[in-house]
Task: structure prediction
Amino acid sequence: MPPAGPQRPVQAHAALEHSASPRSLLPPTDHFPRLQISGKMLLFLLLLPVCWAVEVKRPRGVSLTNLHFYDESKPFTCLDSSATIPFDHVNDDYCDCKDGSDEPGTAACPNSSFHCTNTGYKPLYISSRWVNDGVCDCCDGTDEYNSGIVCENSCKEKGRKERETLQQMAEVTREGFRLKKILIEDWKKAREEKQQKLAELQAGKKSLEDQVEMLRMVKEEAEKLEKEAKDQHQKLWEEQQAASKAQQEQELATSAFQELDDDMDGVVSVAELQTHPELDTDGDGVLSEGEAQTLLGGDMQIDATAFHDRVWVAIKDKYQSEVLPTDWPVPSAPDLTELTEEQRPVPSPPMEEEEEEDEEEEPEEEEEEEEEEEEEGSPQVQGEQPKEAPPPLMPPKPASATEEDKMPPYDEQTQAFIDAAQEARNKFEEAERSLRDMEESIRNLEQEISFDFGPNGEFAYLYSQCYELTTNEYIYRLCPFKLVSQKPKLGGSPTNLGTWGSWAGPEHDKFSAMKYEQGTGCWQGPNRSTTVRLLCGKETVVTNTMEPSRCEYLMELMTPAACPEPPPEPPADGDHDEL
Result:
């Protein structure tokens, strides 16, 4: 027996009657070659191998579909109507028709097609040029009937493998559809519960709004009383501060007056005021008689009352006491140790000038030193200040606020108003926060209840879930109805590949794909987007992802919700010819 001829890869020609693979019967899946078939088509494919073979006499290479064109009782008309020939010219190894339809079983016409019956498997069209070329193209070997090559009939084995694959797909479809029905029932129950909860929240919202409004009024009233009490406390403290400062100013003015009143006659004269050259107004370092008289308001002398009311205000910023402390205070007293150069008592300008003068002015210097000694001794004589620590008339302000500058604690009644207002604020804020949370819950429930989760809500279970697929470089994360993201496997921030847009399947199968849009923009390109194709499966898992074009991604999500209703169980196996 001659050896079996070599097998050429199967290639279909022309329209294939009942010979298309499951894949060819579906809309194209672009980059995803996974089989996705309908229930009717699956039933058709499972029933094919169980039909009993029926031998029908026909010309070689002619399918049952075209048999009616080949009636041996009358002349044959070419299928393109280009000619009519006697029927005995059909398959006579001579090409009479332009379309080659008169030679379906020979290689005479290069543009003709030979039909492989392939009993037990799928029928197939091949080019007539391959007939009797020494290569087995049909699995039943009928294309090599006159080449001397013996072709092994492999149709039954191929049919068996095909049926196993289809049976596995049918099993997945049956189990997936069973789970799909459970998902539908679960959503029905969950939807009813959510609708009931929504009604309860909407009813409770009005009551909570009234409560918030009542607590707002209570809070505002409590804050009003709090403000009045705090303002009163502030006012009393400020009045006390003002009185204290006025008293201090009075004491300073009195002390300065007594210090200036050298002869203790109850008035300060122009001559006595001139002993303080630091009060100079024209910058020459000497307080002239005219300047002193001007400071005294044009008078030659002034009493204590007029001094306090008119003169002290004008000279207090410049006035320097002649009474110096015998010992500096210890470091613990910041108000004395932190005096600036301007605040510390300094010698009068005439003494500084005398240091730079010639020796002719030395007697004058001795006289001024004697006067200073007399002035230093005068407080002891007058009994105004203790000798050991006479304070300066204008103590420097400390760097930080002292206890005297701080407002004292609130009294018991004011503190009670403050505590009541704070409690009212806390209750109002808590109620307002509860109202916001309730409104957010209502919005979420309304959105979820009204969302399009498929014809029967079978995709609803995906709403609060996320699924990941890890590749060599990235971790892809799909959160159905929300967003798709991509994160580097070795760390880094995620990239938004699109947020939920809409269902994107074809018109007849709208829920077979999802579209996610307006993701992170590509460099000098569009915003990223992702199409998610939904495939039937027993589990929910992302099975594939790719970027077929720049910034446009494709994903596969296997889910029971995508499973169609399965066909009924097929009958027992058997041979078939074709339908």
